[in-house]
Each structure stands twice: as structure tokens, then as C-alpha cells.
Design a protein that fits this description.
The complex is a heterodimer of chains A (441) and B (414).
Chain A (H helix, E strand, L loop, with lengths): L5 H11 L2 H19 L2 H9 L2 H14 L7 H22 L3 H9 L1 H33 L3 H17 L3 H11 L4 H9 L4 H9 L7 H14 L2 H13 L7 H33 L7 H6 L2 H4 L3 H32 L13 H19 L5 H27 L2 H4 L6 H27 L9
Helix pairs in contact in A: 3-14, 4-12, 4-14, 5-13, 5-14, 5-19, 6-7, 6-17, 7-8, 7-17, 7-18, 7-19, 8-17, 8-18, 9-17, 10-14, 12-21, 13-17, 17-18, 19-21
Chain B lengths: L1 E2 H4 L3 E3 L5 E10 L8 E8 L2 E7 L3 E5 L2 E4 L7 E2 L7 E2 H5 L3 E4 L4 E4 L2 E9 L2 E10 L2 H9 L5 H9 L5 E3 L3 E2 L5 H6 L5 H4 L3 H9 L3 H10 L2 H10 L2 H10 L2 H9 L3 H9 L3 H10 L2 H11 L6 H4 L6 E3 L4 H10 L10 E5 L5 E6 H6 L16 E2 L5 H11 L3 E5 L5 E6 H10 L2
Helix pairs in contact in B: 3-4, 7-9, 8-10, 9-11, 11-13, 12-14
Classes of the chains: A mainly alpha (441), B alpha+beta (414).
């Protein structure tokens, strides 16, 4: 009997394990890691360019030309600063934002944050379905067919669990908004003028201008992004080792978002503002901004992009809201659970979609009022969430050595105070002069 | 029965009927009694807060506490890490439900009154994690206690008995002071333990692994998400990590080490005893998606001329055999070449004097270490295997792939 040791046999194979194999494995692994981490930042930035976003940005360009471009750089910084705090909290504490708020501030504050969040997101969902309605209007399809269909598609998509695959498709289709970049080039704007306006602020002190600035900020920096982003990073189990990749994702997201916004504003400024179509009211008007690129196909291009973005946002927002509320208040949540196991989660999700879509279908629904009220709720919600976030991120017992540096704190506080001031402006107008609140969809 | 939310914030009056302060915190002394409210913290606005002991309370009602001593007899507040604070450490925090095997968040705490010679002691009976507790927390102070009680009766209750509650405390010193032990966790199935750990924060996961015995820690780590496992192991001292990894099966250990940073991986392997280190390095040298990467080096092989009786005798004599390895036994011929495998069922049904050669499954199936995963999975499916032998170029068995690893890898690619 030859009982030669198995280990000796395998030493031969061990010798054949080449260094090359190990090294190439590392490179692939690093790329795969980046790919696995990328996502939350890009997604939130792309959902920024949804129905409400496009309307606001188009309006900004059409009404004021290049005058609002200066706000893009501060907004990018603000976006990065706030989102990076969420990424850092996710990496260090491994908990979602609503969990942290509950553990550190108690049940009642959490409850009110959740209620405000629900109302704001309801308004956002209404806006998404409004986007669907205006997109199909360009195709000539009635909203009464399209909206219920869209609601059904979104509802089934998420519940069948195919959401992850579809997310990638949505994300890819979001590249359609590059059409605005092409259109901007084809409209031959005065690039020097645009560049000058991006760097040098040209402030006007009339109510319309201030409102537009507020609306721009409000549509770009929304609290649901913070909850969603932190929860996504926690779910991806980002550890301290992958923190730099997470930060890269946040930077990529903020910058790409603002780049698209830049092109939308320049495009509409060069086409609509220049030609005198300064008071656009609906999607068809915004589509006209694409005529230099696409000619008569401008409408279709725009409609398709809008439809994609609206469906994307309509899939993400209700799901994320239901998740955040359930986790903050301690209810079972998750689409991997059955209805009976997580009833509140499924009910919240369904209500958001049904009511959101339903409101669009009511013939003379006070949509305007609803959207304005949701902006007001957002105005109340945003400062509270921001303050909670800054308080949490400065807690040494939570964050250890990863608390904010003094510089970061200064930037964070300045950002928050500025945003609070602007949203107070919006609340004032929203409550007392609702007809003046033109932007802010 | 009282609830913590009804007691907290209540007004305290001394034996003369003078107002002393508001109850702002309840303390339990686990070293003394695991469920009794030992101290009541009474806040007095800008004055220093006072502490009332459990034997100084004459009656407790929602919103009102009556003491049986005078204000002057109460001691001043001094904090103590060995005390469990209701509001700070329990309410709104996550705890482990060892019976339901999940992590839940505490909404409220149920207290039972116990009367003993003129004093009233409050003891924790349950932890409320459902809607009634949530409703109480929301409405406390805003509505009258009677109204709140009426509302909560309509809501479905969800409570966990205090003896099934496992507190989560990242600080090891405080864990000792609070007498937090995790023996209930050790009797849980490792997969349930892993599920629980996935819901905790990194510091809490670290704390739990540190307090489990090595065998349980190894089993839990084997079931945990690989990203979390690498984070946990990298934060541990290499020798402690090596102790745990030693208890794991070689293929699981290799998977874990493969996911660590190269430096951490080297450090840990350096702490492993020689034989384990060699086994693991062998497995690590294979591509993770090949047969070599799936296999484990822990398997049982016996000569084919042995009889059933001899095999059973031999197996019983070996102490370090894991019963799960006996699911399929490999058989080798005179040249130590792989000649077949025997399922434990056939061994069971055979007669004592039957030589193993007659019990082999047909046909002879094996793979080379560099075979791709897809080929391995296909073989499992085609021949309904539970274990597949991995043989080297000369036909000698070097490893075994078990069906549970196949399932794990198949799910990961879904």
C-alpha cells in the first residue's frame, strides 16, 4: 500500500500557481470592487434629473439665460459635502440614517421626521407620475392609460424582485440626457459668456430670481437622497477599506449631476431664452430646446428621456421611503419578505404609488397646490435632517476618529444655514404667495 | 403592570408629600439582581439630581411616584458604568431576541410591581417591540395615561421576555460589568447567529465574535456574508483570528483568507500551526472559481480491500473526524489512486464482511483541480452527487467538493 501524503502531491500544483494569476486576480478584483461600490452616488444624481428636475432647470435657463449658472459650483460642493457625510456614517457605524436618528434622538423626533418624509415623498411621487403624463402627452397617448400602466409596471417590477437588473437598465438609459449636451453644442451658445456666468455670480434681488435659486437648490439637494445613499452603502457592506471607492462614487455622482444641469441650462438659455420663449409651461416647450439637435425628433427624444427618468424615480422613491420609515419605526421591511410578514412596509409602498398616480388622474386635482405644499414640507424636513446629520457626524462616541474636521464642519454648517435660509424663503412664498411659486416642481 | 414610559417623566413626592423631582432615568444593577429597578434618578432642574433606591419607594403609579423617606435621605447622583440605564441603554436600542433569533428595537419596557414590607419594587418582565410601545412613546406627555391605555389595547402586542433578551454592548469592560453573557447565542444555529450579526453595526459584530467561544465563532463566520467576515477578521489580532480559523473547515478558511487584504492574510496564516497553514495555502493557490477553489482537503479515504466492519472500527477510533465528512467516503486502490466513492447509505445497508470495492457508486466521477465551476455544477446535477472527488494528474484524490458549497456558489451567481 502506498499511502503517500496528499499534501506532497499537491505541492506540485502549488508550484504551478503562478504569480501572474495572483496579480491579474488583484486587478480584476479592484475593478470589480469599484463596480460593486459605484451606484448610490450615480443613482441619486441621476434621479435628480427627473421630471421635477428637468422642469426646474429648463425654466431656469429659459427665464434667466445664463444668470443662474454661478449657483452650480456651490451646489456641487454642497451636494458633495452632505452626501459624503452620509457615506462616512455608513462606513463607520454600519447603520442607516433613520436608525441613527432613532438611537440617538429618540422615538418622537424620528416619528416626525418619518411623517414629514412620507408627505414630501408623496409629493415627489406625484411629480414623477406627472412627468410620465407629460412625456406620453408628446406621443399623443392619454394620461388615463399611461399613468395606471406606469404605476402597475413600477409596482410589479419592484415586487417581482427584478428591480436590481432593471436599475442597471434605467441607469444606462439615463445617458439620454446627454442629448442636452449635444443640443447645447449645436445651438452654438456663447461659451465664453456661459463660462463667465458660471464663475462670477450675477445676483438679482427680485422674488422670481430668489425663488428660482431656492427651487434649484431644493430640487437638487433632497433629504431622501441622504437616507437612500446611507442605506445603500450599508447594504453594500462598505467597510473602511472601500471608503475611498465610496467617496469616488459620491464625487462622480455630484459632478455628473451638475454637468448635466449645466448643459440643460445652457441649452435652454441658448434656444428658448434667446428666441424669446421665456415662459415655458409644459414638457413640449422644454422639448423645443432640443430642436437644434434633433429637429422634429426633439420631442420624441425629450419624451423618452423624461419617461425613463420618471419611471426610474417612481421605482426608487416609494421603495426607499417605505424602507426608511419602517426601519426608523422598527417595523419589518424588505421586498424579500412576504406581505404577511411586513404588512406596514407593503402598505406604505402601495399607498405611495396608488395615491401618487391617482392624484394625477383626478381631472381638476389641485396639483399645483399639492406640489407647492410638498415643497413646503421639504423645506421643513431638509433643515431638520441636515442638523441631525451634522450633530451625528460630530459625535465622537459614534464616529470615533472619523468626526468632521473643523474645516469640514465650517463648510457643512455654512451649507446648511444657506439651505435653511433659502428653504425658509420658499416656505414663505409657498404658504403666502403660492401663485408666485412657479418653479419647484 | 406598568410601563417604563409611564414611570419616566413621572413626579416624585417624598414621605411628607413634598415634590422632589421628576423621574428622568431608571437604573438596573445586573451584578446585584438582573431585572430589578435598583435606582431612580430624580431630576431637579438646576439642582443636582438625586437617586432613590428601590427600598425607598412606597408606591408607583403612572406619572406619580411616592417615596417613603424624606428628601434629605436621598443620595446624590453618581454615575456608575455597572448600571444599566433604561433610557440610554435600552429604549430605542437594538437587542437580540434569542428565542425569535433576530435583532429588534426596543420601544418600551414592561415592569411588574412587587410589594415587599411596605415598599414597591419594579421588575422588568418583558421588552415591548410592537405597536403598543410605539404608541405609548409617541403620546407620552401629550395625552392622559388613561387615554393611552385605551388606545394600546386595540393594537397587536409584540413583546419579548426579559430572559430572552441579549443586550448588545461593544465595550468589553462594560459587558463584564453588566454581566452580559452570550451563552444563549452559542446554542443557536450558526446561520441564525450570522443573520443576527448582519443586522448589527461593525463594533457590535466585533464584540459578539470576541465574546463567543472559538468553535461557535468559526461556525458563525463561515455562514456570514464574506464582506463582513473580512472586515471582522481584519480588525482582530492575527493570533486570535488564527485560533478561530483553525476551528473552521479548510475550504471555508481558505475562502475567508482569500477575501482579506494580502498583508492581513499573510499575518493570519503565519499564526496558524504548520499543517493547517499548508492546507490552507494549498487551497488558496487555486483559482476561486475552479474545482480547486471549491474543494476542501478534509475528506475520508480508505483502501478498497477493507471490509465494512474494518472501516467502521477505524472511523470510530479516529477522534478528529467530523461526522459530516462521512457522508461520502473515497476509496483508493493499491497505488493510492482514486477508485470510487461510497455513499453512507450503501455502507449502512452492506454486510459486515463486504469489501468496499463492491460498494462503489457507478460510474467513476472525478474532476481535475483546474476544472471550471460550471463543469463541476453540471456534474453534480447530472449524477445527483453529494460529494465530488478532485484528483491530481496521477489520479490521486486531493480534495472533495460538497453539495453545500455548490449551493452557496450557485446562489451567489443568481
Amino acid at each position: 500500500m502506498n499511502w503517500t501524503s496528499i499534501n506532497e502531491r499537491t505541492e506540485e500544483l502549488q508550484r504551478r500557481a503562478t504569480h501572474v494569476r495572483r496579480r491579474s486576480r488583484n486587478l480584476w478584483r479592484r475593478l470589480a470592487l469599484l463596480g460593486a461600490v459605484l451606484g448610490p452616488g450615480l443613482i441619486t444624481s441621476n434621479v435628480d434629473n427627473d421630471a421635477g428636475g428637468i422642469s426646474t432647470y429648463s425654466l431656469a435657463g429659459a427665464q434667466f439665460g445664463y444668470a443662474l449658472l454661478w449657483s452650480l459650483i456651490p451646489m456641487t460642493i454642497a451636494l458633495y459635502v452632505t452626501e459624503e457625510m452620509c457615506a462616512r456614517m455608513a462606513v463607520v457605524t454600519g447603520k442607516g440614517l433613520s436608525d441613527l436618528i432613532r438611537e440617538e434622538f429618540g422615538f418622537r423626533p424620528t416619528f416626525f421626521v418619518m411623517v414629514a418624509g412620507f408627505l414630501v415623498d408623496l409629493g415627489n411621487v406625484v411629480a414623477e407620475f406627472a412627468g410620465v403624463a407629460s412625456a406620453v402627452q408628446i406621443f399623443g397617448i392619454s394620461r388615463y392609460i399611461a399613468v395606471p400602466l406606469a404605476a402597475l409596471v413600477v409596482w410589479v417590477l419592484v415586487l417581482r424582485g427584478t428591480y436590481r437588473q432593471v436599475e442597471k437598465i434605467f441607469l444606462a438609459l439615463c445617458s439620454f440626457y446627454l442629448a442636452y449636451a449635444f443640443s447645447a453644442f449645436l445651438a452654438k451658445p456663447d461659451w465664453l459668456d456661459a463660462a463667465r456666468h458660471t464663475v462670477i455670480p450675477s445676483l438679482q434681488f427680485n422674488s422670481n430670481y430668489l425663488l428660482m435659486v431656492t427651487a434649484l437648490v431644493g430640487t437638487t439637494i433632497a433629504p431622501w437622497q441622504f437616507f437612500y445613499m446611507q442605506a445603500s452603502f450599508v447594504e453594500k457592506r462598505i467597510g473602511p477599506r472601500q471608503y475611498s471607492q465610496a467617496r469616488a462614487d459620491v464625487i462622480a455622482g455630484s459632478v455628473s449631476c451638475m454637468v448635466i444641469v449645466f448643459f440643460i441650462i445652457v441649452c435652454t438659455a441658448a434656444t428658448l431664452y434667446a428666441s424669446g420663449h421665456r415662459n415655458i409651461v409644459d414638457a413640449a416647450d422644454a422639448a423645443r430646446a432640443l430642436v437644434p439637435l434633433a429637429g422634429r425628433w426633439a420631442g420624441l427624444l425629450f419624451a423618452f428621456g423624461l419617461l425613463n427618468a420618471s419611471l426610474f424615480a417612481a421605482s426608487i422613491l416609494p421603495l426607499s421611503t417605505a424602507h426608511v420609515i419602517c426601519e426608523g419605526l422598527g417595523f419589518e421591511a424588505g421586498i424579500d419578505r412576504k406581505f404577511k410578514e411586513a404588512p406596514i412596509f407593503y402598505w406604505l409602498y402601495t399607498i405611495l404609488i396608488v395615491v401618487g398616480g391617482g392624484l394625477i388622474l383626478i381631472p381638476r386635482a389641485p396639483l399645483w397646490r399639492i406640489l407647492v405644499l410638498s415643497q413646503v414640507a421639504n423645506g421643513i424636513w431638509l433643515p431638520i435632517v441636515l442638523i441631525f446629520m451634522i450633530l451625528l457626524i460630530n459625535r465622537r462616541d459614534l464616529m470615533g476618529s472619523q468626526v468632521n474636521s473643523p474645516t469640514f464642519n465650517v463648510v457643512a454648517w455654512v451649507t446648511s444655514v444657506a439651505m435653511i435660509a433659502l428653504t425658509l424663503v420658499l416656505i414663505y412664498f409657498g404658504l403666502f404667495h403660492p401663485s408666485a411659486a412657479t418653479g419647484g416642481l | 403592570m406598568l410601563h417604563a414610559t409611564e414611570v419616566l417623566g413621572g413626579e416624585a413626592y417624598d414621605a411628607q408629600g413634598n415634590f422632589v423631582g421628576r423621574v428622568s432615568e431608571l437604573f438596573i444593577e445586573p451584578a446585584d439582581q438582573p431585572n430589578r429597578v435598583a435606582r431612580y434618578l430624580l431630576g431637579r432642574g438646576k439642582y443636582l439630581p438625586l437617586l432613590a433606591r428601590y427600598d425607598q419607594i412606597s408606591s408607583v403609579a403612572p406619572g406619580v411616584i411616592k417615596l417613603n423617606v424624606e428628601e434629605g435621605d436621598l443620595e446624590h447622583f453618581h454615575s456608575n458604568e455597572a448600571w444599566l440605564a433604561m433610557r440610554k441603554d435600552l429604549l430605542d436600542q437594538q437587542i437580540i431576541d434569542t428565542r425569535g433569533r433576530k435583532v429588534v428595537r426596543v420601544n418600551d419596557v414592561d415592569l411588574a410591581e412587587q410589594r415587599t414590607n411596605g415598599t414597591v419594587e419594579l421588575r422588568i418582565t418583558d421588552v415591548d417591540v410592537g405597536l403598543p410601545g410605539a404608541a405609548r412613546r409617541l403620546l407620552q406627555g401629550l395625552a392622559s395615561p388613561a387615554f393611552i391605555r385605551r388606545i394600546q389595547e386595540k393594537l397587536p402586542a409584540r413583546t419579548i421576555r426579559w430572559e430572552f433578551v441579549n443586550l448588545i454592548e461593544p465595550d468589553p469592560l462594560r459587558r463584564v460589568k453588566l454581566r452580559i453573557t452570550h451563552d444563549k447565542l452559542e446554542s443557536m444555529h450558526p446561520a441564525d447567529l450570522a443573520d443576527i450579526m448582519e443586522e448589527l453595526s461593525p463594533a457590535e459584530r466585533q464584540a459578539i465574535i470576541a465574546s463567543l467561544d472559538e468553535q461557535t465563532a468559526a461556525e458563525a463566520l463561515a455562514e456570514l456574508d464574506s464582506r463582513l467576515t473580512s472586515q471582522i477578521v481584519e480588525k482582530m489580532a492575527p493570533d486570535k483570528a488564527a485560533d478561530i480559523i483553525e476551528e473552521m473547515e479548510p475550504d471555508k478558511a481558505a475562502d475567508l483568507l482569500a477575501n482579506l487584504s494580502p498583508q492581513a492574510s499573510q499575518d493570519v496564516i503565519g499564526e496558524l500551526p504548520g499543517e493547517e497553514a499548508r492546507e490552507v495555502e494549498t487551497l488558496l493557490s487555486f483559482d476561486q472559481h475552479s474545482a480547486g477553489g471549491l474543494m476542501t482537503t478534509d475528506f475520508v479515504y480508505v483502501g478498497e480491500t477493507a471490509t465494512r466492519a474494518e472501516v467502521i472500527e477505524w472511523v470510530r477510533g479516529r477522534e478528529e473526524i467530523n461526522p459530516e465528512q462521512l457522508d461520502t467516503i473515497f476509496v483508493i486502490d493499491g497505488n493510492a489512486k482514486f477508485s470510487g466513492d461510497i455513499a453512507v447509505g450503501r455502507l449502512l445497508m452492506a454486510r459486515d464482511d463486504e469489501p468496499l470495492a463492491q460498494l462503489k457508486s457507478q460510474p467513476l466521477v472525478s474532476v481535475a483541480p483546474d476544472a471550471r465551476e460550471k463543469e463541476v455544477f453540471a456534474l453534480f446535477d447530472k449524477y445527483n452527487l453529494r460529494t465530488l472527488a478532485v484528483v491530481d494528474a496521477s489520479g490521486r484524490p486531493i480534495g472533495a467538493i460538497t453539495v453545500d458549497d455548490v449551493i452557496t456558489h450557485l446562489r451567489a451567481s443568481l
